[in-house]
Fold each of these.
Amino acid sequence: MTHGMRTDTYPPYLDGGGRDWRDTATRYALLPLRIFLGVTFIYAGLDKLTDGAFLKDSGAGSIGDTMRAVRDSSAIPALVDMALKSPVGFGYAMALGELAVGIGTLLGVLTRLAALGGALISLSLWLTVSWASDPYYYGNDLAYLMAWLPLVLAGAPVLSLDAAWRSRRRQRAGAMAR
């Protein structure tokens, strides 16, 4: 008696039936989160780059004044001090980082790495800018941090360049095994 090996990537079904709408919903469950976070971070990055006041050392709405305002209430004042050595450079780095994270997440390119970047940006903002929010859940950076974690763990299994590349590698490996 010969035994076959399962080659699909889906779990076996207890009811013996085929895939139904719940299986499809499970496969696509992270897609709305990916779209939301990707669009939001692209928007945040572009907003910073196009805001005439943000990328300045001082003045209303500037990154410099914002960082000075939150320095004493942040969890890690040394992190703010480091950013204050070059507030404009830090502002550009934050904006370009948000753009890279958003584009990577939206297109599904190196999604786990992009999500890790998004989580680190959210963590740094939570520990600095929104740390003093009372109660803590008024600061949205903690919620963003938690939203990034499923994408760090799972990546972008569908409708992504990562999934297309993974499928192509499997096809090549299968062709080479023949």
Note: Residues 87-107 form the longest helix (21 residues).
Amino acid sequence: MEARSITAEVPMTPRMSEDPAQLVPELADVSAALFRVTGNGSVPRPTISLVQLRAGQIVGSTYLTVLHTGFLRKAGESEERITSVASWQDSPYFTAAERAALALTEAVLTPPAHGERVPDDLYARAAEVYEPKALATLMFVIGQVNFFVPVALIAKPVPGRAFDAPWK
């Protein structure tokens, strides 16, 4: 595989010309169920969006990064919080619960050199700030964004287009 020059323009067309959700309409039921599970109110919506943004950054998806940055802006999040998600470890803008959520996201998405992805001490820190239902929901939030990562990386929807129209 040949690397793209850093000065080359990136095409503004999706790699996959047809919307995968249109090709596989059964996805609508799965997607709706995932949104119901993660939207049960036990994890604050801003935390969910921060997790989704961080996941997009980790996997290197411009589409997911732009999408979730836009959602955070529409929700009224400050530019400081949005832009410091990539460096959340030393940012003063996040609560202990948000830090735990971001740490879990990184642990799940980043293979360690050795040991478990989610060590016991990280789980314990998360369990200190989340009730059991919220912690379970947070696991599903991380799973939900990971469910859509292959679409973002393989089909390459166009970043910045309407959420329901990245294929047009």
Note: The first helix runs from residue 20 to 23.
Amino acid sequence: MTNTFISAIKSKAEDSFAITFAPLSLEDVYAKANDPANGAVVVMSGMVRNQTDGEPVVALEYQAYEPMALQVFYQIAADIRSLWPDVNRVVIYHRIGRLSVGEISVLVAVGCPHRSEAFAACGYAIDTLKHNAPIWKKEHWADGSSSWVSIGACEQSEAGC
């Protein structure tokens, strides 16, 4: 028996999704979410911070199961369009590899005619991504040690990663 997706979700041509080793650009993601019909583009930028629970962090390392993670991104966009039908564009980009403090690890952008829907949809996208996408991060500590953390686990802790 082989494991396959029963119904692969296809993305809309106007949406954009990526998992990449390359640095992420706020300008590029904003431009991909922009549309003449938009009254708002909301962008969420997640960055590597210098500490977790007061312990100094020097870097994060991300890994992803890319085919499944992209399917999660497609599902998020489909869900957004079901919940907020006026949304014009959904953009979700996530970095993998080793990132230093201050580098952008994830960008989510939603373009929509109205700001309230754009904010709600963007919040839904990042929360759902962190909970459902098979993406893991390894925290590299100042003392030279490191530990893996599932992003989904962050939503269940008070730290909120």
Note: The two ends are 37 Å apart (CA to CA).
